[in-house]
Design goal:
This protein is α/β, with parallel strands linked by helices. The relative contact order is 0.11. The chain folds into 2 domains: 169 residues, Rossmann fold (3-Layer(aba) Sandwich); 199 residues, Dehydroquinate synthase-like, alpha domain. The model has no long low-confidence stretch (mean pLDDT 96). It is built from 15 helices and 9 strands. A hairpin with a 5-residue loop joins strand 7 and strand 8. The two termini are 35 Å apart. Helix 6 packs antiparallel against helix 7, helix 6 runs parallel beside helix 10 and helix 13 packs across helix 15. Bound molecules: nicotinamide-adenine-dinucleotide (NAD) and fe (ii) ion (FE2).
């Protein structure tokens, strides 16, 4: 047991601008910050075609930037997307990188910024602290209120058909983050729900993180959860609700700052194999595994869950166990109301795949060791059964 007062090392990005419509003046913001003028925008084709990026691109052009757009990012991006992006960027002679999209685009932007001027192979970067050298200047602009990737030092890459690996390194923290909730207005309801629940899971798992839980992450996680819990349903029901969209985006970023320093645990460890095997989106995978893992952790994390019940306004006057149960009921009810699919069977996961999922979840030891309760392979199988 840790008896001594815990020392805290908290790291995050140096600058966050949270302002409705700020992507419309991206050129002005960037010109005030850097002398560089050859921008790479990293995004996905759907967003590029939708026109969501156009005001930002126009503003860059008006401010004298040359803009090259790499739009080949896909969900759960494989290594080949990273190498194509780097090749494209070198060909276009870019000197500053902007990630503009969901977590997938921002994760690729981070790796591209590192790799464009580097000799190091991506395969040598997996794990914690293995990136060498500096990167190009990096700006991140999220279009989902979910992953928090804009403020984390993590990139997740699919290394083969079924497995994802993470690069975790201080170079992956961006220089500048722009939070423009106007960009999220067109996010469809199903994505709003799934990415919003992903952000809530970040806050919950940071708050119960076993080894690195700390007072700064706790404060961020609590405020994140407060914002996300009260705005998820309004944002789902009316995508145009400006206050709800702003609160969701800020909440997702605060949760990202929390879990970059107090890492996520079993919900994510069990979610990743669902993405790997069945291409279930990251947020939805987390939503599907959340309730079983909350129940599994309820005793060990009871006092924290009961504190979170107070944060979301679900706490009563009861004891810790009742508070924890109230929190779990609150999350269950919220997920029901969000309209997200609730069971693995609803998203066509074959029952026969559960043992393989459980075996793959065991590979996520980087995450599992943060869980308040040890998760064995048979526990994992039981949790998938409960989620089925
Ligand atoms: N780096 C981190 O800290 C971190 C944390 C969690 C997850 N991740 C990774 O992030 C990825 C998931 O990111 P995500 O959930 O943001 O989804 P995503 O980036 O994969 O995008 C999903 C879909 O949403 C669409 N979309 C995005 N913004 C939109 C908008 N404003 N309007 C309409 N459509 C929009 C995209 O075009 C895409 O089709 C996964 O690869 C996951 O592993 C990274
Ligand atoms: Fe996540």
């Amino acid at each position: 047991m840790e008896m001594s007062p815990q020392s805290i090392l908290f790291e995050t990005v140096p600058s966050i601008l949270h302002e409705w419509g700020c992507a419309r003046r991206l050129g002005q913001v960037m010109a005030a910050w850097t002398e560089r003028r050859n921008v790479l925008i990293v995004t996905d084709a759907g967003l590029h075609k939708s026109g969501v990026l156009e005001p930002a691109k126009a503003s860059l052009a008006a401010a004298g930037f040359r803009v090259a757009v790499f739009d080949e990012v896909v969900a759960d991006p494989p290594e080949s997307v990273v190498s194509r992006c780097v090749e494209f960027a070198r060909g276009a002679d870019v000197d500053v990188v902007v990630g503009l999209g969901g977590g997938s685009s921002m994760d690729i932007a981070k790796l591209a910024a590192v790799l464009i001027g580097s000799q190091q192979a991506l395969s040598e970067m997996y794990g914690i602290g293995n990136v060498q050298g500096r990167r190009l200047p990096l700006v991140q602009i999220p279009t989902t209120a979910g992953t928090g990737s804009e403020v984390t030092n993590i990139s997740i890459v699919s290394v083969n058909e079924t497995n994802k690996m993470g690069v975790v390194a201080p170079q992956l923290y961006a220089d500048r983050v722009l939070l423009d909730a106007e960009l999220t207005v067109g996010l469809p309801r199903s994505h709003t729900a799934a990415t919003g629940i992903d952000a809530m899971v970040h806050a919950i798992e940071a708050y119960t993180s076993k080894h690195k839980k700390n007072a700064i992450s706790d404060a961020l996680a609590r405020e994140a959860l407060r914002l996300l819990a009260s705005n998820l349903i309004p944002a789902c029901e009316n995508g145009q609700d400006r206050r709800a969209r702003e609160a969701m985006l800020l909440g997702a970023t605060l949760a990202g700052q929390a879990f970059a320093n107090a890492p996520v645990a079993a919900v994510h460890a069990l979610a990743y194999p669902l993405g790997g095997h069945f291409h279930i989106p990251h947020g939805l995978s987390n939503a599907l595994m959340l309730a079983p893992v909350l129940r599994f952790n309820a005793e060990a994390a009871g006092s924290q869950y009961s504190e979170l019940a107070d944060v979301v306004g679900a706490g009563g006057k009861g004891n810790v166990a009742e508070g924890a149960a109230a929190f779990i009921r609150f999350m269950d009810d919220l997920m029901d109301r969000s309209g997200a699919p609730r069971r693995l069977r609803d998203v066509d996961v074959p029952h026969s795949s559960l043992p393989a999922l459980a075996a793959d979840a065991m590979k996520q030891q980087r995450l599992l060791l943060n869980n308040p309760v040890v998760v064995t392979e048979s526990d994992a199988l039981r949790l998938y059964e409960q989620a089925y």
